[in-house]
Amino acid sequence: TQLLEQSPQFLSIQEGENLTVYCNSSSVFSSLQWYRQEPGEGPVLLVTVVTGGEVKKLKRLTFQFGDARKDSSLHITAAQPGDTGLYLCAGDYNAGNMLTFGGGTRLMVKP
Amino acid sequence: NAGVTQTPKFQVLKTGQSMTLQCAQDMNHNSMYWYRQDPGMGLRLIYYSASEGTTDKGEVPNGYNVSRLNKREFSLRLESAAPSQTSVYFCASSEFAPTRIRDYGYTFGSGTRLTVV
Question: In B16, B42, B52, B104, which residue has its Cα 20 to 30 A from A91's Cα atom?
């Protein structure tokens, strides 16, 4: 079983602060995706990273793929209450066969 | 709106009862998946179907069966529910091709919250 570790598990911050969450594995990914899940809903795709060292930006969110394609990070600048949710990383180890999900980081941004 | 529809949204079962969770997608996707989500454990794959007529076991298949009824529908059956199967169940679909999954990811339903007492 492939294992994806996410850290921290929980994060509570004030509006306007910056934060970084991490996703790590001992295995190499073909690609890695980040999802956000709100209460009572299914996860929604934010971004996919494919190339080692790749950086993608989505407004205040910056996603980075490690050079060795074994880890990834999500950085949020000036967090807002609307960023509150569960952030999940998901690795594709078999070039499109299926995704393996990490345990998630639960983020709460207080106004 | 196009997407993945799951029914029911909530269900309470007694130990030993059986039930079927329904899932349907209207995006003409080839592959469909059933995951369960437990606190701190992320999403774990129960079964998946890469195409109509095929099903395969995922990480945690014990106690479950699936049926890919047609291209649109993929059901999950609990034959004899146990308290350990208390969880939130998500159905998802995607195009079963590397570039498609990379570009569009999975589309998830809104989940079925199941409690087994």
Answer: B52
pLDDT surpasses 60 at A6: yes
Cα(A3)–Cα(A100) distance, integer angstroms: 8
Q: What order of strands is seen across the sheet that includes strand A71-76?
A: A5-7, A19-24, A71-76, A61-65, A55-58
Would you call A95 an interface residue with chain B, using a CB distance cutoff of 8 Å?
yes
Residues in CB range of B97: below 8 A, 6 or more apart: A96
Q: Which residue of A has its CA nearest to B40?
A: A103
Place of tokens 């394609």: A69
Under the banding of pLDDT at 50, 70 and 90, the label for residue B71 is: very high
CB within 8 Å of chain A, chain B residues 63-102? 90, 92, 96-102
Q: Which of A35, A92, A101 sits opposite B101 (nearest CB)?
A: A92
Confidence of residue B100 (pLDDT cuts 50, 70, 90): low
